[in-house]
């Protein structure tokens, strides 16, 4: 399956962001004096599962978008099956992490991909708003009109 470059970029952002937040989390456990090997293993397990979950989501959405409009019901079924399967996978990983490793590091880390996606969506919206062209269609030659006149010192509100 061939991914769109934007999908590859988002997978990269989620992967790097999750790894960065996981490193910060492990550092926080260390700084607070609660670091053990179980913290490390729980965080690695949970971070890997979160990244893999996002990757599977990207694969499923890419595949569903390749369906024709007549196959819309099949695409929706694929998305639903994928969501159920991925949630069961995450529950199994969380159970293993909570039982055998550190419950806190496992539970905290599983949310990092979602945090990265949220931060990324805000950044993309701000970037799009900053790059949006100004509406100068009504103004001649793209010049904007100023309120008031500089010559007479008055200003309109």
Describe this structure in words.
By secondary structure, the protein is mostly helical. The protein has one domain. Helix content is 71%, strand content 0%. It has helices spanning 5-31, 37-65, 72-100, 103-109, 112-131. Helix 1 packs antiparallel against helix 2, helix 2 (37-65) packs antiparallel against helix 3 (72-100) and helix 3 (72-100) packs antiparallel against helix 4. It starts with a helix and ends in a 26-residue tail after the last helix. The mean pLDDT is 86.
Poorly predicted segments: none
Number of domains: 1
Topology as H/E string? Answer: HHHHH
Q: Determine Rg (CA atoms, Å).
A: 24 Å
Q: Beta-strand level of the residues, as a percent range?
A: under 5%
Oligomer: single chain
Integer average pLDDT: 86
Strand element count: 0
End-to-end gap: 58 Å
Q: How does the helix and strand content classify structurally?
A: mainly alpha
**Which of globular, elongated, flat, extended, rod-shaped describes the shape?**
flat
Instruction: Give me the number of helical elements.
Output: 5
Range of helix content: over 70%
Q: How many strands, which pairing sense, and closed or not: the largest β-sheet?
A: none
